[in-house]
């Protein structure tokens, strides 16, 4: 699929990897629907995308974990743009913690709220957006691709029982949806990033950052543009579906 003039929805599109993918795809002529919770940051990203590509970019306030909001958002995007050719399920949150922890004689546990919040956004949100976008694409006869952002943590990372479960679920359902949706001309694939240079990693203690970077075979973190490059590959390569691209500098957790 050539990106020029194609309509792509990016969730979590106002900062971090979502914003980087938005600017990268805008520069390649895509028309963008950016979905997030923060109106101000969304508007700022819409302006940046218009500057990067000169094309259309619009903002949509929507919590991907809420069914009615996702249904409304997808309907609005279809009405505004007339077609939907792509979706990047990028919105995600972290609520890390050990499931059970004993420190200085004190026992603490991962709360159900921490568990549920991550499952709601990182797994249910991906299901809802995929279901609604795929249904609209099938209804309208639009062909295209859906990209899910998983994580290196899908293999099982200490302190991330909630996040690892959600990201493993996303990787498994990528295969399910690739099989289910191929007949409608919709491909589904995923990217599993390792540590990427974002505001979160920039705020880590230098010693922790150094230790983490030393464990990566390529001895550096990934750049947001390298994730956007992989997303572009998936959109453009019509034989790629049902697979996860590991983009982690060779690191295994
Ligand atoms: N930064 C990294 O090193 C890695 C990131 N990832 C994944 O990449 C994706 C993006 O990560 P970052 O850019 O680092 O995160 P980020 O926190 O900078 O951006 C995430 C965006 O998602 C939005 N969001 C959160 N909950 C939402 C909801 N319920 N509805 C709509 N939007 C919502 C946030 O407002 C934010 O703009 C996430 O899925 C994350 O799990 C995976 C591996 C590594
Ligand atoms: C532990 C992995 C590499 C990781 C690190 C940071 C974020 C983030 O800031 O969102 C992730 O989503 C991760 O999967």
Automatic annotation (TrEMBL):
Pathway: Aromatic compound metabolism; p-cumate degradation; acetaldehyde and pyruvate from p-cumate: step 2/7
Record key words, sorted: Oxidoreductase
EC numbers on record: 1.3.1.58
One Pfam entry name: adh_short_C2
Record-given protein name: 2,3-dihydroxy-2,3-dihydro-p-cumate dehydrogenase
GO molecular function, one term: oxidoreductase activity, acting on the CH-OH group of donors, NAD or NADP as acceptor
Catalysed reaction, written as an equation: (2R,3S)-2,3-dihydroxy-2,3-dihydro-p-cumate + NAD(+) = 2,3-dihydroxy-p-cumate + NADH + H(+)
Organism: Azotobacter vinelandii (strain DJ / ATCC BAA-1303)
Family to which this protein belongs: Belongs to the short-chain dehydrogenases/reductases (SDR) family.
InterPro entries linked: KR_dom, NAD(P)-bd_dom_sf, SDR_fam
Domain Ketoreductase: 6-194
Keyword Oxidoreductase among record annotations: yes
Listed GO biological process terms: fatty acid elongation
Classification via Gene3D superfamilies: NAD(P)-binding Rossmann-like Domain
């Amino acid at each position: 699929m050539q990106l020029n003039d194609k309509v792509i929805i990016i969730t979590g599109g106002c900062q971090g990897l979502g914003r980087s993918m938005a600017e990268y795809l805008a520069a390649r002529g895509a028309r963008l629907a950016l979905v997030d919770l923060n109106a101000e940051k969304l508007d700022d990203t819409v302006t940046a995308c218009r500057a990067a590509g000169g094309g259309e970019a619009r903002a949509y306030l929507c919590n991907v974990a809420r069914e009615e909001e996702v249904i409304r958002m997808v309907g609005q995007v279809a009405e505004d743009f007339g077609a939907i050719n792509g979706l990047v399920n990028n919105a995600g949150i972290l609520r890390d913690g050990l499931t059970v922890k004993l420190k200085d004689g004190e026992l603490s546990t991962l709360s159900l709220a921490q568990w549920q919040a991550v499952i709601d956004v990182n797994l249910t949100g991906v299901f809802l957006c995929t279901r609604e976008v795929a249904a609209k694409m099938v209804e309208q006869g639009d062909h295209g691709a859906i990209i899910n952002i998983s994580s290196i943590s899908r293999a099982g990372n200490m302190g991330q029982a909630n996040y690892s479960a959600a990201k493993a679920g996303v990787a498994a359902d990528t295969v399910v949806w690739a099989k289910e949706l191929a007949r409608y001309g919709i491909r589904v694939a995923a990217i599993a990033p390792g540590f990427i240079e974002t505001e979160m990693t920039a705020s880590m203690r230098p010693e922790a950052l150094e230790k983490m970077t030393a464990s990566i075979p390529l001895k550096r973190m990934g750049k947001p543009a390298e994730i956007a490059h992989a997303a572009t590959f998936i959109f453009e390569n019509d034989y790629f579906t049902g697979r996860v691209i590991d983009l982690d500098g060779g690191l295994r957790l």
